[in-house]
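Continuing from the previous page...

OK, I double-checked the sequence for Recombinase domain-containing protein against my notes and this is the correct one:
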Amino acid sequence: MSGPEALREWAGPRRIDRAHPLSGPAAHAEPSFIRVAFVARTSTYDQQDPTLSIPRQLRSCHSVLPDNAVIVAHFYDIESGRKDLSDRGRGNAHELFQIPVPRDGGIQNLLDEAVRPDRRFDVVICEDISRVSRRSYTSTEIEHRLESAGVMLICADEPFRLDAKGRRAKTSTQVLTRRVKQGVAEWYVIEMLGKAWDGFETHTEQGYNVGKPCYGYLAKKIPHPVPAKRAKGLKKTRLEVHPVEGPVVRKSFGWRVAERLGYQAIADRLNEDLVTNPPPTPVHPDNAVGLWTYSNVRDMLTNPKHTGHMVWNRRARKGGGKNRMNPVSEWVWSPEPTHEANIDLETFVQAQQIAEQRERSRTASKSRDPQAKRTYRLRSYIFCVLCKRRLYGKTKHQHAYYVCAPKKAWVPEGHPASTYWVREQSMLDGLTAFLAAQVFGPYRRQLLTASLRELDENGQKDRKTKITALRRAITEAETKRKNLVRNLELTDVDQDFVRDVNERRAELQSEIEGLRAQLAKAEDEVQHAPNPGLLYFLPISPIELAELPDELSRKLFEALRLEIHYDYVSRSATCRVTLLGDTIEAVSKTTQEAVVIPFPKQKGPAMDDLHGGTVCVVPPAGFEPAHPPPEGGALSPELRGRYQHRRS
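Thanks. Re-ran it with the corrected sequence; updated structure tokens here:
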């Protein structure tokens, strides 16, 4: 019968305890030394000095290891500890520094080698668990993967044992300490991010710029308000309008709003004179291409800083955002304008709305494909009433058509299950008749019904009366405020009298501010009120679209805000053109270029007597293109439209 001595002999020095964390293919029961891998991480290279941080972490780990433990491999990264594990260890920031510590790879290389049978280490050490990750979940996952491979993860600032035999070396105190420190590390970084966010919000509200000034502005340096930082020469930045680039911004917004040009079309115009319209300089000047591009124009026309407000957090710079645009609801705006504006807020909003209207459309009627030969005159202007999508151009039997073919998942009720076609010539004939008779015809104003004319005249009169009354009330209130101060100089006063005067001044100031707000609102209503008088500023002339060059016809369509909505059920198309007070000059200019036989201009009121506004011209049912499948006829040449007003 065997006893304890026999058991000890059976489990002798050559028997390997597979549950021991130091066990493995190359391990021995009593190894002469313990092989250790060093793992480290320092924050992004613009926040810390890796040439100091990495060696310091290595020294901290050396100081707590026993004499028989030797660091045989070094793994470290220069990156944020809040990244997902799948994104960790992919950067090359370490190549930018001369770090006096050899590098065998990053965290991914460490995990890969840990599961190999020929790994060089049996223990991994770090200075602090936050150096593995700032997120509890990620650091725990790394710890679990290492332990599953038989590798212990220890920290220099935690209690650990490497000489334990016959039982696990991880103790309950070690687990408690590590979990607490993981929570503290994650809490700390979240708290710091929250405070930094609040700081950036305040920084933005006070009108200070972050980063390189956007195109159209110069950096105005201001001494730092903190004395210690001011002593070091640090400064903050505000924006001031660039004398050369500012006019380019205003010009580009004007083209976008008035002519609805695409980004590339605006870039082409700007490239015609690079002296007057200098292209933007990137953060790294070596990357400059020397001309305007699609993306340059897009960035300029979508930057809200041109409105005079300071805006921050438009793009996601961290957390895997890769510079993507954040939702507008997440932008941080200054409550009031903080610098001189290049354009007003209303113009900026109109420019963004045009982007929505031009979605999936292009300025040119021809495809970007260099092999494309066909031009589609009405590309981007025809919409399906049922599915709300644009019809695209297609050629069959040498004829041009516009096709609606939504995917099966996007076919609404009532929409044909199969593709339907509309002949281009049918659309052009009907559109030509509509424009010639009802937009540029001599009797276009008479087409307005008497009720609409009367409503417009009464509305204009009421608005002018209201504006005049508000201006008079503001003048009277300002006069009262001045007289109050003037009388104060001629009167013996006491404290009660001064208090009464201050209260009265506050009342008058509040009254003036309220009246000014009402005046601004009334003037805005005038600017957007329907105004049939805008028709007087269009020439009277027949238009023949078939004879116009494609570039000129599309320019005319954009100036008129052309929209054609085709209804498959009724086989009819509704055409709408919109005249705006802000764009009437561009419409008139484009129309003068497009006319075939000019007629004398119709007499009308002076431009100074007209307010801004909109006039929408919409023909009723009767604008009916034949529906070919696919060889169709022509639209009815007798098109009797009507004018319908709507708010812009």
